Amino acid sequence: MSTTKKVAVAAVAAAIGATALAGCGGSDDASSGSSGTGGSGSKTVTLVSHDSFNASKGVLKEFTRETGYTVKVLKSGDAGAALNQEILTKGSPRGDVFFGVDNTLLSRALDNGLFTPYAAKGLGQVASDVQLDAAKHRVTPVDTGDICVNYDKKYFADKKLAPPKTFDDLAKPAYKNLLVTENAATSSPGLGFLLGSVATYGQDGYQDYWKKLKSNGVKVVDGWEQAYNEEFSGSAGGRKAKADRPLVVSYASSPPVEVLYADPRPKTAPTGVATRTCFRQIEFAGLLDGAKNEAGGKALLDFMIGKKFQEDMPLNMFVSPVTKGAKVPELFTKFGATSDKPATVAPDAIAKNREQWVQSWSSLVVK
């Protein structure tokens, strides 16, 4: 993503005063074991990802126990930047598996032929609606998450104003100058929110909707971290920065992060989610074409849709499992939100129209 969900989680944690969930840039040994660098017979498998991939050490050690392979994580900026680097090194990849491309950018990866087809073991237990490349198996779905408007509960309680529920509500005078969103050209949440408006109003109506939002004082910033931690009054970072926007485009899983990393933990989350403004993201991993350790890469893909890894994700990467039967921690379900009918856009429509939608959005809202 331009700003990934995982980057978002790390930034929230940092803002609340905890250690960030993932480091920035560089490469990390994610579990102990062989220090090989890849190649035929290597016992190291390299996972290329966005900066904030995070998994419990114990889970990755379990992968090593089961397979003999050690995971090395090569962090490469946000997912959009990481994807661009893989496109530039196509055929001579920097690793074996790429994790972090989502349905908003999937067509770029597939059109550039980045992945070697592989049907991961366990796909039969993965929900069919997230298998967007089921015919060719170039990518494996790993997690889902929803981009949604979050609101500052205290602000709306103090004002005795009901928080917005829908896309339509955001354009009403009662919410003038309250919303901050990310740039759709530079941020994955921003792009997801734009796609949500396309899904809601259609290709013939989304531009008029954004004209209304602009007239209603929507603020646009480059990325999620600025929007959430500097502009949004409901977040720990925003409160510290004396932010004045009580509505922000973020994630349905942002409230649990605010709870988990607060000290002391509150009984209720300070933020809420407008669940009828959500856009569903699906995140994928794939075996890179030209991978030096193809066998290790396949083993890692199998593991990533297994229950151990899937059940580890919710409180490490704040996303939902895609594997049937994977348990989700109570804290995640208690404080997170669920959208029964999140907005979606067909992958082929995104592939065909994404650049045009972003350009039109930019001309209407930014320029």
Walkthrough of the structure:
There is one protein chain. With 367 residues, the protein is of the alpha/beta class. Helix content is 37%, strand content 18%. It has 15 helices and ten strands. It has helices spanning 5-16, 57-67, 79-88, 106-111, 153-159, 167-170, 188-201, 206-215, 224-231, 236-240, 254-260, 294-304, 307-312, 330-335, 347-366, and strands spanning 27-29, 44-49, 70-75, 97-102, 140-152, 179-182, 219-221, 247-251, 271-287, 320-321. Strands 1, 2, 3, 4, 5, 6, 7, 8, 9 and 10 form a ten-stranded mixed sheet that branches. The model is unreliable at 1-8, 13-29 and 31-37 (pLDDT under 50).
Describe the secondary structure blueprint for this structure.
Blueprint lengths: L4 H12 L10 E3 L14 E6 L7 H11 L2 E6 L3 H10 L8 E6 L3 H6 L28 E13 H7 L7 H4 L8 E4 L5 H14 L4 H10 L3 E3 L2 H8 L4 H5 L6 E5 L2 H7 L10 E17 L6 H11 L2 H6 L7 E2 L8 H6 L11 H20 L1
Helix pairs in contact: 1-9, 8-15
